[in-house]
């Protein structure tokens, strides 16, 4: 029991300011970490006693540990009870932000892929027998042209310390065994095979290991065929989208803000529809409209005497198509932002300008646009950042295509950095390459950070923050 005098000396008011917030978060993180360790330890013991224990049981033990630790922590730090509401936020940040970032950074320096997943390779499984002393496993055959060293992907000529996977006839439970040495098709193990296992098959382990900077070296070695052209198009796509959407939004917003315009609410509603319709639906509609043979766009051009345009079949026209569709999707947002910003401008400024003889154009260039700059700077910066990683429009409209000569299969003519990473992770030849995709993700992060800093500097965001 805690002495009453000691309990009375503990503060019940949290430290003030930033220091208090950091201390509270630190206490909560320590408590969460201790609960996770306790839950993991109890779950390990449970799995030994109950072999069929479900994997999610570890979460149950963590919650139980938290329920025990929370009142104990309250007795030690009485003011921490006021901060328990942060627990859900911390859990979500750790699970959906911190953990993915940590895993991405970790995978970028490994060979983790569909081929090197740390699991047994079932595709090259072969028959096997075990000797009487259960120390030597002999393989029935090897893939053509391979030695035992290449078959097992050994780190050394003797294969000492590498792993071979053994199965029974049903191949139900794989058993990992460490290799002592190899000779011909015979594998000598460091330890005898358990008597309970009737060896019938064997295979290799697709090793998952660290490779240092090899993924980054691979990316920059082929930069002219993937990284640089994709990066240049990503910048052009994001910058072109922001410029076109902003110009269209400003023009339409200024026109529709005119109170003397009849039916302006009808026009606003109609022009707002592209933003209201889900992009998944509207982009598929544009795919049909841009069809080279049957699309209504080319049919209309044919009636006017123009040749059919390969909107989605030519690298240049595919880029134009993406900018046009993204303009159709994005201008309603800029138009709405313009109308909202115009509502904050004092009408007296326009009345005074009219009295002084200023034309409508002079009022727009000398009053409207300068006053809109403050409102539109953060909007344009956020729009650039969004379109820099706008995977949806690329995937739905062109899927990164069409193919372009001299380019990687995962980085075609309209692929942006994010779709290139996606293709590398999930559609690369030979299986998924998560390690290379993670390295691409890190490069995207640093490129995005550098461009954002340049944008912030050019827009004077840092100077505004210092005021």
From TrEMBL:
It is found in: Cell membrane. The chain crosses the membrane at residues 21-43, 49-72, 84-109, 230-257, 269-290, 434-456. It is a multi-pass membrane protein. Residues 231-455 form the ABC transmembrane type-1 domain. Its main location: membrane. Keywords: Cell membrane, Membrane, Sugar transport, Transmembrane, Transmembrane helix, Transport. Pfam families: BPD_transp_1 (PF00528). Part of the ABC transporter complex MalEFGK involved in maltose/maltodextrin import. Probably responsible for the translocation of the substrate across the membrane. Belongs to the binding-protein-dependent transport system permease family. MalFG subfamily. This is Maltose/maltodextrin transport system permease protein. It comes from Deinococcus rufus.
């Amino acid at each position: 029991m805690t002495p009453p005098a000691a309990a009375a000396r503990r503060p019940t008011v949290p430290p003030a300011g930033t220091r208090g917030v950091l201390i509270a978060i630190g206490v909560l993180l320590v408590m969460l970490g201790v609960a996770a360790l306790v839950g993991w330890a109890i779950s390990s013991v449970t799995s030994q006693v109950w072999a069929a224990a479900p994997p999610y049981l570890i979460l149950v033990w963590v919650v139980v540990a938290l329920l025990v630790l929370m009142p104990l922590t309250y007795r030690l730090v009485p003011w921490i009870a006021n901060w328990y509401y942060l627990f859900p936020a911390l859990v979500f940040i750790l699970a959906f932000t911190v953990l993915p970032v940590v895993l991405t950074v970790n995978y970028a320096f490994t060979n983790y892929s569909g081929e090197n997943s740390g699991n047994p390779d079932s595709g090259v499984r072969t028959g096997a027998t075990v000797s009487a002393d259960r120390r030597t496993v002999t393989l029935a055959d090897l893939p053509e042209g391979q030695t035992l060293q290449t078959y097992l992907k050994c780190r050394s000529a003797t294969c000492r310390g590498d792993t071979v996977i053994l199965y029974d006839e049903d191949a139900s439970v794989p058993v990992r065994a460490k290799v002592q040495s190899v000779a011909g098709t015979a594998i000598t193990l460091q330890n005898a095979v358990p008597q309970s296992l009737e060896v019938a098959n064997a295979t290799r382990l697709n090793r998952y290991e660290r490779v240092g900077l090899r993924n980054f070296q691979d990316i920059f070695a082929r930069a002219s065929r993937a990284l640089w052209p994709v990066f240049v198009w990503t910048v052009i796509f994001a910058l072109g989208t922001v410029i076109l959407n902003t110009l269209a939004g400003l023009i339409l917003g200024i026109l529709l803000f005119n109170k003397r315009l009849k039916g302006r609410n009808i026009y606003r509603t109609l022009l707002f529809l592209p933003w209201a319709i889900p992009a998944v639906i509207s982009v598929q509609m544009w795919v049909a409209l841009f069809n080279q043979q049957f699309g209504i766009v080319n049919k209309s051009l044919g009636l006017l005497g123009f040749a059919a345009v390969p909107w989605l079949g030519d690298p240049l026209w595919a880029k134009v198509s993406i900018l046009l569709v993204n303009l159709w999707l994005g201008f309603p947002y800029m138009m709405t932002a313009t109308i909202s910003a115009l509502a904050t401008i004092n009408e007296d400024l326009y009345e005074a300008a009219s009295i002084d003889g200023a034309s409508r154009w002079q009022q727009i260039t000398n009053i409207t646009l300068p006053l809109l700059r403050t409102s539109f700077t953060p909007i344009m910066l956020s729009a650039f950042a969004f379109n820099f990683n706008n995977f949806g429009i690329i995937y739905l409209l062109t899927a990164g295509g069409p193919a372009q000569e001299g380019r990687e299969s995962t980085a075609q003519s309209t692929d942006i950095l994010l779709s290139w990473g996606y293709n590398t992770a999930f559609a690369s030849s030979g299986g998924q390459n998560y390690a290379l995709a993670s390295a691409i993700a890190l490069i995207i992060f640093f490129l995005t950070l550098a461009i954002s800093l340049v944008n912030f500097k050019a827009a004077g965001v840092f100077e505004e923050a210092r005021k």
